[in-house]
Amino acid sequence: MALNGILGNAMSGIQASQLGMRSVSNNIANVNTPGYARTKVDLIARSAAGIGMGVQVAGITRVADVFLQAASLRAGSDAAKATTSAALLDRLQSQFGGTQDAGGLYGRLVKAFESIGAAAVDPVERVARLSAASDLQSFFDEASRLSAEVRALRDEADRRIGSGVERVNEILAELQSLNTQAQALNASGSDSTGVTNRQAELLDELSGLMDIRAEVQPDGRLFVRTENGTALLDNARLQLSYVPSGTGAYGADYGRITAVVSSSGATVDLTSSIRSGELRALMDMRDIELPAIAAQLAEFTAGTSDALNAAHNNSASYPPQTTMTGRNTGLIANDLLSGSGIATLAVVTDDGELVNRIDLEFTAGGFTVNGNAGTTVDDLVNELNAALGGDGTASFSGGRLVINATAPGTGLATVQDESSPSDLGGGRGFAHFFGLNDIITSARPSFFDTGLGAGTPLGTSAGQEMTFRVSTPDGRSTTEITIPADQATLGDFVNALNNPATGMGGFGTWSLDSEGALSFTPSSAYASYDFDLVSDSTSRGDTGLALSQLFGIGDAARMSRAEAFSVRSDLRSNSANISFSQLDIGAGTVPGDLVLTAGDGRGGQALYNAFSATRRFDGAGAFAGGTATLQEYGARLSGDVGTRAARAERAADSALSVKEAADRKRMDVEGVNMDEELANMILYQQAYNAAARMIQASKEMTDVLLNMGR
């Protein structure tokens, strides 16, 4: 029995050394394999009845620290989130340029106003005016391009979310399959380190997409949850679902990332459960960062347009233009008009002599045209026609006021009263409010001070309605509210919006201010909720404008403004039509007086001064509402985009440093050390040789024993 024991011990040593060498060889082969964790052979002494019986291989285990792995996964998620955000913002920042970049948005604005200033010095020089018009168009073209770039980045982020969700599903499906294999291998006592290594590789990839934590079960299966505890893979697997919208349009209704439990078919919303990783970064960029930049860009571009139009509407071309075609105000014929101050419309000969003077005075109760009172848009048109007589005509259709000078060799001009300028809403005078002499045109409203009061007819048709969505701070939709928009007056519509039972009164208050601007203020309990316009089927009269467009309700109405501006086409084709002069009309000015002269550059100077004049901006993105010059707001916008990109880059650098440190700590435990493996190889080789020598010795002893009996 003693010789058999020696032989058995030696054979167990041979087997243990073979398995040890296999483990070492596998480690050395995978020394450069990313995510590979080394394996080791666990040996225990074998005994029977207290007598040593050699060595037993308890198993081959993967060397890993679950706590270091968890730290590495968290760091990987944070790094992926930070680097994704930084990459997208860096691309956008390079498009905006800085304040010193002549080709950037701010640089183009500065160049445009420099050209206007140069043209104002010599207003007769048409080439200088043409350069000014061209440089202005270049600025607005760049603003439109940047807005389109923001939309393109939103669309890219949305499509990448869809691709990321597909990859998450693939990873979870493979992990589920590996769980089955690991469970079977562990049940049979077989080596499962290959499966375990693959699980670790997939977890590393998954953590780059979303924040996760993993739990290894006693039977070898791997359960995966999000950091907030939502189970992705346990006894069942979630099948994630997301359908990209296919557009980056402002106001687009982006869907949610949902999941279906494979065993029960139940659906859960995962969007708010994803708090880190590439998917979170893409959602934040699509829904927060990029819309904020778009809102700021739109407000800046609209403010620039409005400032230029204010100056241009208070100026005149020489010779004067024969037709003034206003913007689509969104007004209808029976709308009430009110305001304050005085403005003058003049019919002037091509030589600058006054033909007809029409004074308009606005009050809280209406207006007068040469002393004749009126209250509605229709009244205004009638009184203008009466005052113009045979010198011109006025008409109003599709929201536009159009005035023509009918006598040959005559044209039109307007001017504000110096001591009491007219104001029909938002500080905009008569010509400015109606856009009679805009230098910058737009197919959609660029400001939302409508001048309308509560008693104004709503102007919509039966069956038209607006739908709003209320969402929690983490983006979950709580309810959708559809509100009829076919009331008699604007005040009635505001009351319907504020109805606590059928409107939004339970969440906040809609209000119509003295300038005709409609706004919503959430109550304190819902201050952090989101209120989005889902749909709007309204159309106001013959204007073709929805109420949301007229009042700037929703992202689409506000953010898309930057893509709608252009220098008026006739001004680009004939720079002589640019209004670089101003009317000289006082209380005693009468027909026959010279009121317009060639070489007058006051209108051009007023256009140039718009760059440094303080004006009001609405709150947009990260910018609170307030007053600033175009110069200040433009520099702030360029600086904000650069600051966002720089902040994201710093966050990415920091997150990558943390990830590198976590990975290094993890690899110190899991990684293959060549010196250590070579030492183990020598050890197992020597043990194998020694065990083989023991077998040889046992054979020789057995032979001696057998020979003794012969």
From TrEMBL:
GO terms for molecular function: structural molecule activity. It comes from the Bacteria. One of its GO terms (biological process) is bacterial-type flagellum assembly. This is Flagellar hook-associated protein 1. SUPFAM superfamilies: Phase 1 flagellin (SSF64518). GO terms for cellular component: bacterial-type flagellum basal body; bacterial-type flagellum hook; extracellular region. Belongs to the flagella basal body rod proteins family. Residues 91-314 form the Flagellar hook-associated protein FlgK helical domain. NCBIfam families: flgK_ends. It is found in: Bacterial flagellum basal body; Secreted. Residues 671-708 form the Flagellar basal-body/hook protein C-terminal domain. Residues 9-36 form the Flagellar basal body rod protein N-terminal domain. It holds the Pfam family Flg_bb_rod. Keywords: Bacterial flagellum, Cell projection, Cilium, Flagellum, Secreted.
